[in-house]
Design goal:
Radius of gyration: 18 Å
CATH architecture: 3-Layer(aba) Sandwich
CATH class: Alpha Beta
Order of helices and strands: EHEEEHEEHEHEHHHHHHHEHEHH
Helix content: 25-40%
Structural class: alpha/beta
Distance between the termini: 34 Å
Strand order of the largest sheet: 2-3-5-4-7-8-9-10
Largest sheet: 8 strands, mixed
Shape: globular
Number of helices: 14
Length: 311
């Protein structure tokens, strides 16, 4: 395995990030039980937050791996045991240099190790953006472990989709000026990337200050930028993108929630992607950006709960 980056739990920015996350969860009425899970055979720990009770559902975030942006959606998933996973390298989990690992193999390894540790034989997965890509890999390589998929926001690296140029630029060393849009600043610019992902000014203005604080402090954790750059650069390698034939091998029921303002792709292309899966279902979220639950939390929550009622 490539270089492992340990999280310093005594770092002041890490402590502030956890405080901001607690305040954000409290704002949305979420009582989270957070803990570290050691992944056998990989030598890393991931931080998870469990919320509620009932049938389990695993949440895999997008971006560089923090679960906090999904708080408004998790608040709508009442009656389920939510297991929200900060992916390796994000949200206070240990990270790896993704340029030194096989992306697909590592993804399936850490997700399998997580489910084994949690004693979850089969579980539905809700996954956003590149987390959606990861969940599709898991569904392909370990189909017996995934009962259903919910993919809010355009999944990463599927046919007909492409991240905005500013995200591609984040993986190029030396472009510090562009990287400044994600740099931690207390001027309120920490939510600026959301405007570049198709979200309206009214949606962004309605988010609590704790959301901005989370972006601010999680972005300041030591090695956060190194890890995010290695992750984004790894996605440009040949063979990462899923093909129509591979998507055709995903047999699990899958619900796509696609924001009409999501600038990673168009609704028409999203309908084609969903149609590549034998049991794919497509729903357009009017006015939704790349994180469609920020614009329509109740609608997204209702659609997900209805879809997962049998899983």
């Amino acid at each position: 395995m490539g270089n492992i980056f340990r999280v310093d739990v005594n770092n002041s920015d890490f402590i502030a990030a956890l405080d901001a996350e607690r305040r954000l969860f409290a704002y949305y009425g979420l009582e989270a039980r957070s803990q570290y899970i050691e992944l056998p055979g990989l030598g890393i720990k991931v931080r998870i937050s469990e919320i509620g009770s009932g049938k389990p559902v695993v949440i895999i975030p997008g971006n560089v791996g923090e679960v906090f942006p999904l708080a408004p959606l998790m608040a709508e998933l009442k009656g389920r045991r939510i297991i929200a996973v900060n992916r390796p390298g994000g949200g206070g989990s240990d990270g790896v240099n993704y340029l030194n690992v096989n992306f697909r193999e590592f993804t399936v390894q850490w997700l399998t190790a997580l489910l084994d540790t949690l004693k979850l034989d089969e579980v539905p997965i809700i996954a956003h953006s590149i987390g959606g890509h990861m969940s599709l890999l898991m569904a392909l390589d370990k189909p017996e472990r995934v009962s259903a998929l919910v993919l809010p926001g355009v999944p990463g690296q599927v046919p007909g989709t492409r991240p905005p140029l500013f995200l591609i630029a984040l993986g190029i060393p030396g472009l510090d000026r562009i990287l400044n849009i994600f740099s931690p600043q207390k001027s309120g610019r920490t939510l600026r990337p959301l405007s570049l992902m198709g979200h309206s000014p009214s949606t962004i203005a309605g988010l609590p200050g704790a959301m901005s604080d989370c972006y601010y402090y999680f972005g300041r954790i030591p090695d956060a930028k190194v890890l995010s750059r290695s992750f984004i650069r790894s996605l440009t390698r040949p063979g990462i993108s899923l093909t129509p034939e591979q998507l055709g091998g995903v047999k699990q029921p899958a619900l796509f929630l696609w924001g009409t303002n999501d600038n990673f792709s168009t609704v028409a292309k999203g309908q084609k992607v969903a149609g590549m899966l034998p049991a794919g279902r497509f729903m357009a979220i009017q006015g939704g950006g790349h994180l469609p639950w920020l614009d329509s939390p109740a609608e997204c929550g209702w659609l997900i709960m209805e879809f997962l009622s049998d899983y």
